[in-house]
Amino acid sequence: MSDRPAGAAESAAERLARLERAAASGGAEAPQALAELARLAGQAGSLEKAVAKELRRVLFRLRSRGIVVEPVPAGPGQQGEPAPGGAVGPAAGVRPLRAAASAIDALGQARLEMSWELPREFWRVRAVVSDGRGLEAFEAVRVGRREATGESGSPNEPDLQPMPGEWGAAMLAGAAALARRLGSGLPRGYAVVRAQLEPGLPDGADGPYGWARRCWSQRLQEALADPDRVRLWARASAALLETGEVDWELGDWIGPLLDEARRQLATRLVLLPATRRSVAERLAMRMSEVLHAPPSRERLSARLAYVALRLDRADRMAAARLAAAGATLLADPQASERVGVLEALAARHLAPYLMEEERGSARAAAAGREGGSGLVLPPTSP
């Protein structure tokens, strides 16, 4: 609580202290505080001597915590004036130009490459995002305008799918916001452009992948208008294993059950075949239940939304419908139906502990419903 009398003006020292606390907190007020500090740093030569000295101290303390504030020089006649449109400092002129991203790998990570136009300069950004920790890695390098805009003809890496810059910004914002919520910290490289970049990022509440469902094509969204088809496609989504887009390691969620499978099924000569089959079916069903329950349900829904967008953009509409249906079903907390690709992933994780003749019953048990939909899950390799 401040000791300043009510109605008294905030002193320069108090203002700098407030901005320092907000910038260091990493909370919702951090981007605006960083933008204001960057603007003040660019005007340091015109500040009163005592204020400039205190500003240097604030910037030094932030830098010692890995938060680098790059000065943003003000244009002629614009000292201390807000930028046009009400934006302050670096929020004006911050624009994502190009983006490309990879598939989600086994650990839930995806690589993101972007070009940004920041005030009076261009940057190339490379990042690794994940739905487990947020922003795993970040690198920013100044580049020329022709490289940033693609005029130089420099290609993206072959496994990166191009997408609009705004989508890459949503992916980056979601990863940074998740890292803050989890307290996992932001990479040191992020501090290089943080003050200029963050005022231009959208809201990151959907995490690194959940934003994708808002970007599905109209054609894909119209295909999901029939709830019966959504349920059918979600059940049939085990076929997504063949796309190479869902090769995910789910040990974070079903690790204890895999340990149980190792203990109970690894010694093949101890249990009778009927007992082994019963154990395998029970474990498969429990794995499926874990994957369909929070918090894995929400994360897998977001992953499938991102997979659907990638398949949609690649004009693989049949597979995109399966992924989008699974994402839609998992996003509904009231839906009790199972999603086929999650059952298939559970069966694949369990496969190394099963004999060949036991794998079919485990896949059927993962569906968790007598009679099921009549769909046969694909075979899995040990």
Q: If helices are DSSP runs of H or I spanning 4 or more residues, what is the number of helices?
A: 15
The parts where pLDDT drops under 50 for at least 5 residues are 75-91, 369-382
Structural class: alpha+beta
Strand order of the largest sheet: 4-3-2-1-5
Overall shape: elongated
Radius of gyration: 26 Å
Based on the structure, what is the oligomeric state of the protein chains? single chain
Instruction: Output mean pLDDT.
Output: 81
Q: What can you see in these coordinates?
A:
This protein is α+β, with helices and mostly antiparallel strands and 382 residues long. Helices cover 47% and strands 10% of the residues. The chain is built from 15 helices and five strands. It has helices at residues 12-25, 30-42, 49-64, 145-149, 165-182, 194-197, 207-210, 218-223, 227-235, 251-265, 273-291, 296-313, 317-331, 340-350, 356-367; strands at residues 95-101, 109-118, 121-130, 134-143, 161-163. It is elongated, with a radius of gyration of 26 Å.
Write the layout of secondary structure elements.
Blueprint: H1 12-25, H2 30-42, H3 49-64, E1 95-101, E2 109-118, E3 121-130, E4 134-143, H4 145-149, E5 161-163, H5 165-182, H6 194-197, H7 207-210, H8 218-223, H9 227-235, H10 251-265, H11 273-291, H12 296-313, H13 317-331, H14 340-350, H15 356-367
Antiparallel strand pairs: 1-2, 1-5, 2-3, 3-4
